[in-house]
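Technical note accompanying the year-one report. For the benefit of new consortium partners, we illustrate the data format agreed upon in the data management plan: each record pairs a sequence with a C-alpha cell string. No post-processing was applied to the example shown here.
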Amino acid sequence: MSRRQGIRVSRTVGKSSGVVETIAVGLFRWLATDHTGMGNALEHIPSMGFLHELRTIFMQFLISVAGAVLMGGWIFALFAYVIPNLIVWLL
C-alpha cells in the first residue's frame, strides 16, 4: 500500500468514526428522552399525605405477597398433579 492510500484510509476511518459517534449520540439521546410524557405527569401529581403513602406501600406489598403465594400454588399444582397425569396419559 502506498503512502497516499494509507493517508486516504486514515482520513476515511477518521471521518467514519465521527459519523458513528454522531449517530450513537443522537440515538442514545433519543432513547433517554421521555416520549410518553410520564415525567411531566408525575411533576403535576398532588402530593399525598404520609399515611396515605404508607397505606399505598402496604397495599402494594400485600398484592406482591398474594401474587407470590398464588404463583407457588400454581407451581405446586403443576408438579403435583399436571406433570404426573401428563406422564400417565403419554405412556
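Partners are asked to follow this layout when depositing records. The chain has three helices and no strands.
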